[in-house]
Amino acid sequence: MAISSALRRAPWAAAARGLLASRSSWRVHPHQGHRTECSAPLSSLSGPQPGAAADAHLLRVINYEISCAQLDCKKRDWAKELGESFPFEIQDKEGTNRITLTRRDQNERIEVEVFLPSPADSVEQNGELEDRVEDDNRQGHASNAAANQYYIPLVVKIHKGAASWLEISCRSYPDELAIESLAFGSREESVDSSDIEAKISNLPEEFQQAFHSYLKSRAISSDVTNFLHAYMINKECHEYLAWLRILKGLIKR
């Protein structure tokens, strides 16, 4: 059975599409943008004062941020939501900005490094975002342009046997996967990977489309990237909450 057909029928794939449909409620960078309404507005906290009062004020601000983050962060049972048919094994270490997906397919070993959401580059993406805003406004989908103001970096490394590898760097936006560059080499060679790296945008369009199909055939599908958006946004929230709690403990000493 083809991988793409199996993925479309997998129970987790339907859940991933549902997560994408509800992405307007996700909190990207919860400490920077709009968040769930908290118990009290930040402006109601008393102003800073010298000495011990300044420490107390800082703790009140940190507690406020913690209360907001707790409302935003959701505990998810990913194993239950995904089931056994998810094509990758997930390795997630708390306190890091990434996760690693792994799988084996015949004579290949596939590793995908997935990083926390990043804001879209204001220079490179500005013209593209403006075009999308105009298109979305004409089509009545005003939220799509805002959603595309962030992306999730992906690095797909495909090990061919024991000696050679192919590395594909991507940006996963909420509605598309953009391939940025590719590199390849052999572990036995002393050539630095940067010497054989190529920007995908410099290659013919047919070449670019073929690489998208190549990734899909190795389970890097839209359903997988939809899930990764939900997972990494949720991880970012929990990492921020953990950071706040460590900071609070430091201030209280």
From TrEMBL:
User: GO CC annotation: what is one?
Assistant: mitochondrial matrix
Q: Which Pfam families match?
A: MAM33
**Region spans: Disordered:** 30-49, 121-140
InterPro entries on file: MAM33, MAM33_sf
Signal sequence extent: none
Q: What is this protein called?
A: Mitochondrial glycoprotein
What species does this protein belong to?
A: Digitaria exilis
